[in-house]
């Protein structure tokens, strides 16, 4: 029942002084209003006569807006006056995308499409929760309502990572072309493959001159080299408790995902194969880059619902999985946190086995708060304690970095917005040196 019967009774109460028996007037007016309400509810279109379905986007990138529409078909012989509410989980950021929402009028036998705009605030799967349909009678005195399952058409929107670091890809590809030698003379490095001979030009390294070929041609010829292709790159995402920390406004796991996606896109264009593992105390995601054209979309889709777990990462499991999966030498990019407790007790004991077979790169997000606390002068006693804690945290990171370097591990420690391009730059440098 709506507010209209009460309003009608209130208006009728103004006529009670005209009645010879006011109590009789109250009974008559109450009976009339109740009869009108019952008739109005009976004339309302039954919600079961309205068929509902969905159409629209299945995936959207975090920060972008997608549209998912509800299609309503009035199969009854009467026009439908209804209130429609399409409810999603709060993190889906749903809002109506049609004027006059949420009231609609659908003629008998007609169909209508009601769009809902979704701007998610988190990665992962965002399901539709409940479709509520409230059908009103012609007078608006009463209504019929249906809500929840199984009347709600199922729909799930997968929210993909932002991948804002793809704006760096053209610049990294330009550097890759320089390394490959398509723009500038190819470089010479350990582990590279011989390509062709060409005439010497000013600026070429004299160590690349092929004297025998020059004697045969009566001209100075130099050897050109290109980095080896079909190398293997393994990205390992640490999804343990350290990945749940927010560094600035970005979760540490999201920054690691950005770095992994940019590296996968770059390595795929370079002709290398990229595999992905997400591990804490179990393997959460495993993507094998069998096809370079499909590896990146598969990674994006697999990483979308990935969330950190509040457990310690089992680095023994990480090393075992890598050694079991990768028989050939490859570049292992471990995206984790430079914490003395996590790495000192977990990674360092198994690192010699891993570094003996593979080239290891450890990439971590640097917390700018530590740098700020360690550089500004303390004004209060509390600030002095915070500054001392920041200095100790930075000293622990330095000790972990030195220990990793001692095992031949390359370390990248960068802010969240610079982690992805710096990891890609390190990959290009190692590729140019033939150390993959």
Automatic annotation (TrEMBL):
Record-linked Pfam families: DUF58
Residue intervals of the DUF58 domain: 197-405
Protein name as catalogued: DUF58 domain-containing protein
Originating organism: Plantactinospora sonchi
């Amino acid at each position: 029942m709506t507010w209209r019967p009460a309003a009608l009774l209130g208006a009728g109460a103004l006529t009670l002084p005209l009645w010879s028996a006011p109590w009789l007037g109250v009974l008559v007016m109450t009976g009339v209003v109740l009869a009108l309400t019952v008739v109005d509810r009976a004339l309302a279109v039954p919600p079961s006569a309205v068929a509902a379905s969905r159409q629209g986007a299945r995936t959207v990138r975090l920060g972008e807006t997608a549209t998912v529409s509800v299609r309503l078909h009035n199969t009854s012989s009467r026009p439908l006056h209804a209130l429609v509410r399409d409810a999603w989980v709060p993190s889906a950021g749903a809002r109506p995308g049609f004027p006059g929402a949420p009231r609609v009028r659908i003629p008998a036998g007609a169909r209508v499409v009601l769009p809902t705009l979704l701007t998610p605030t988190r990665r992962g799967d965002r399901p539709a929760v409940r479709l509520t349909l409230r059908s009103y009678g012609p007078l608006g005195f009463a209504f019929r309502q249906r809500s929840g399952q199984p009347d709600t058409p199922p729909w799930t929107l997968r929210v993909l990572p932002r991948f804002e670091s793809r704006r760096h890809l053209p610049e990294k590809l330009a550097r890759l072309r320089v390394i490959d030698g398509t723009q500038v003379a190819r470089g010479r490095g350990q582990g590279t493959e011989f390509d062709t001979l060409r005439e010497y030009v000013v600026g070429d390294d004299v160590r690349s001159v092929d004297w025998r070929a020059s004697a045969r041609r009566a001209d100075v010829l130099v050897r050109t080299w290109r980095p080896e292709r079909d190398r293997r790159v393994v990205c390992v995402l640490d999804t343990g408790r350290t990945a749940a920390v927010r560094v600035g406004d970005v979760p540490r796991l999201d920054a690691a995902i950005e770095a992994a996606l940019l590296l996968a896109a770059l390595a795929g264009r370079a002709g290398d194969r990229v595999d992905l593992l997400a591990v804490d105390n179990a393997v959460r995601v495993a993507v094998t880059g069998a096809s370079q054209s499909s590896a990146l979309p598969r990674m994006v889709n697999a990483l979308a619902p990935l969330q950190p777990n509040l457990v310690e990462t089992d680095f023994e499991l990480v090393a075992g999985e890598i050694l079991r999966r990768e028989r050939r030498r490859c570049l292992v990019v471990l995206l984790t946190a430079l914490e003395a407790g996590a790495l000192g007790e977990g990674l360092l004991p198994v690192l010699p086995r891993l570094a003996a077979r593979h080239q290891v790169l450890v990439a971590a997000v640097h917390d700018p708060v530590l740098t700020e606390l360690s550089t500004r002068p303390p004004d209060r006693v509390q600030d002095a304690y915070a500054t001392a804690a920041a200095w100790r945290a930075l000293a622990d990171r330095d000790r972990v970095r030195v220990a990793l370097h001692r095992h031949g591990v390359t370390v990248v420690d960068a802010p969240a917005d610079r982690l992805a391009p710096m990891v890609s730059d390190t990959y290009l440098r190692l590729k140019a040196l033939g150390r993959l």
